[in-house]
C-alpha cells in the first residue's frame, strides 16, 4: 500500500481541538499541554500537508476553507484510527471493570436487557450500569462511559460508531385516513395533516425518498412523545399520521389492519443510532466489547423480526415498506 502523506495523527487531534475552541490557549488547556506544543504541532501539520489550515492575527483565529474540509475528514480519521487501536487492545486482554451506559427509551427495554445480559455472561469480570434516558445526555458532562443516540457528531472529543439504522414508515389508523377530504398520494399533502412526532432529541425534519426523488416534510405536529408505544396509541386513536419503526412494534396492528401504511411507495430516511463515547476511552476493551455485543443483538433482533413477518404457511405478511 503506497503512502502518499506522512503526518502525525495526534496533530490532527490538536488541530480539531483548535478548530472547535477557536483558540490556541483554550485548546492547550483542554488537551493538557503547553500552548507552545500546540503551536508547534499545528505548524508541523501544515508543513507535512503543504497547506495553510489556519489564519492567525492579534485578535482572532480563523480556519481556511481547506482547513474546514480537513477538519471534517480529521474527525472520521481519528475515529477509525482509534477503532483499530481499540480492536488490537481488546484482543490482548479480557474486558473487566464497570461500564456506565445511557440508552434512550425508544431503543426499548427488550434490546437493552438482551445486550446487557449477553455482555455480562460473555465477560464475567465486567460490571454494567445501564440507564434508560428520555433525552440526549452528554457522556462527559453527565458521567457516562457510553451513550446511545443519533449521530454522527462533528466533535473531535467524542467517538461515534454506528450500531444500527432504525427503519421507519409512515402510518395512520384506517378511520383517520377515511376522514380525510382526499387520499394521500403525494408527500406535500402531509404538510396539511396533523402529525404524531417521535420527539427524542427534540424536533427534527423528516425526509422521504422514492428512487432519486427526495421531499422534506414539515407537517403540523399535533402531539410529540419520546416513546414509540405512546406514539402508537395516538395513531391508533386516529389523532394523526406518524412515523413508526418497521421492526416488531407494529406487527400485530398491521396484520389486524388497525394501522395502515401511508405513502407506502415513499421511504422515510432511517434514524441512525450511534454508540458515543469520549475520545480518551478509545482504547477501552470494555467499550469495544460492548459495541460488538450491541451489534450482535441487533443482528439477532432482525432475524427475530423476519420470523415474525412470515405467516405459518411461510408467506410474507405486511410489515410496511
Radius of gyration: 24 Å
Q: What coarse outline follows from CA principal-axis ratios? A: globular
CATH superfamily of the largest domain: Periplasmic binding protein-like II
Order of helices and strands: HHHEEHEHEEEEHEEEEHEHEEEH
Average pLDDT for all residues: 81
User: What is the number of independent domains?
Assistant: 3
Q: Which spans of ≥5 residues are poorly predicted at pLDDT below 50?
A: 311-321
Strand order across the biggest sheet?
A: 4-3-5-15-6
Largest sheet: 5 strands, mixed
What is the fold-level CATH name, i.e. the topology of the largest domain? D-Maltodextrin-Binding Protein, domain 2
Q: Treating each run of at least 4 consecutive H or I residues as one helix, how many helices?
A: 9
Q: Note the beta-strand portion.
A: 15-25%
Tell me the total number of β-strands.
Answer: 15
Task: Provide a concise account of the structure shown.
Belongs to the LysR transcriptional regulatory family. This protein is an alpha/beta fold and about 325 residues long. It is built from 9 helices and 15 strands.
Helix-strand blueprint:
Blueprint: H1 9-21, H2 24-31, H3 35-49, E1 54-56, E2 61-63, H4 65-90, E3 97-104, H5 109-122, E4 126-133, E5 146-150, E6 158-166, E7 168-172, H6 174-179, E8 195-198, E9 206-210, E10 213-217, E11 221-225, H7 228-236, E12 241-245, H8 251-256, E13 260-261, E14 267-268, E15 271-278, H9 285-309
Parallel strand pairs: 3-4, 3-5, 8-11, 8-12
Antiparallel strand pairs: 1-2, 5-15, 6-15, 7-12, 7-13, 9-10, 9-14
Helix pairs in contact: 1-2, 1-3, 1-4, 2-3, 4-9, 5-9
Amino acid at each position: 500500500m503506497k503512502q502518499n502523506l506522512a503526518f502525525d495523527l495526534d496533530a490532527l487531534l490538536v488541530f480539531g481541538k483548535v478548530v472547535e475552541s477557536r483558540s490556541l490557549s483554550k485548546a492547550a488547556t483542554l488537551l493538557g499541554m503547553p500552548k507552545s506544543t500546540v503551536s508547534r504541532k499545528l505548524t508541523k501539520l501544515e508543513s507535512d500537508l503543504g497547506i495553510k489550515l489556519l489564519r492567525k492575527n492579534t485578535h482572532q483565529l480563523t480556519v481556511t476553507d481547506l482547513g474546514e474540509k480537513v477538519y471534517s475528514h480529521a474527525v472520521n480519521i481519528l475515529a477509525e484510527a482509534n477503532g483499530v487501536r481499540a480492536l488490537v487492545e481488546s484482543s490482548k486482554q479480557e474486558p473487566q471493570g464497570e461500564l456506565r451506559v445511557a440508552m434512550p427509551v425508544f431503543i426499548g427495554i427488550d434490546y437493552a436487557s438482551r445486550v446487557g445480559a449477553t455482555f455480562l455472561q460473555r465477560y464475567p469480570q465486567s460490571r454494567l450500569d445501564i440507564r434508560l434516558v428520555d433525552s440526549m445526555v452528554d457522556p462527559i458532562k453527565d458521567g457516562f462511559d457510553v451513550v446511545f443516540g443519533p449521530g454522527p457528531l462533528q466533535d473531535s472529543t467524542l467517538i461515534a460508531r454506528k450500531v444500527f439504522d432504525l427503519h421507519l414508515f409512515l402510518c395512520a389508523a384506517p378511520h383517520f385516513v377515511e376522514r380525510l377530504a382526499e387520499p394521500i398520494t403525494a408527500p406535500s399533502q402531509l404538510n396539511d395533516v396533523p402529525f404524531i412526532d417521535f420527539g427524542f432529541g427534540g424536533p427534527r425534519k423528516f425526509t422521504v425518498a422514492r428512487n432519486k426523488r427526495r421531499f422534506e416534510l414539515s407537517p403540523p405536529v399535533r402531539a410529540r412523545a419520546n416513546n414509540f408505544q405512546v406514539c402508537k396509541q395516538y395513531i391508533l386513536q386516529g389523532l394523526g399520521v406518524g412515523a413508526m419503526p418497521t421492526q416488531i412494534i407494529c406487527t400485530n396492528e398491521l396484520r389486524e389492519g388497525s394501522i395502515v401504511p401511508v405513502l407506502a411507495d415513499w421511504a422515510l430516511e432511517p434514524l441512525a443510532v450511534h454508540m458515543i463515547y469520549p475520545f480518551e476511552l478509545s482504547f477501552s476493551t470494555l467499550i469495544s466489547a460492548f459495541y460488538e455485543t450491541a451489534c450482535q443483538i441487533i443482528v439477532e433482533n432482525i432475524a427475530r423480526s423476519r420470523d415474525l413477518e412470515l405467516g405459518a404457511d411461510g408467506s410474507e405478511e405486511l410489515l410496511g415498506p
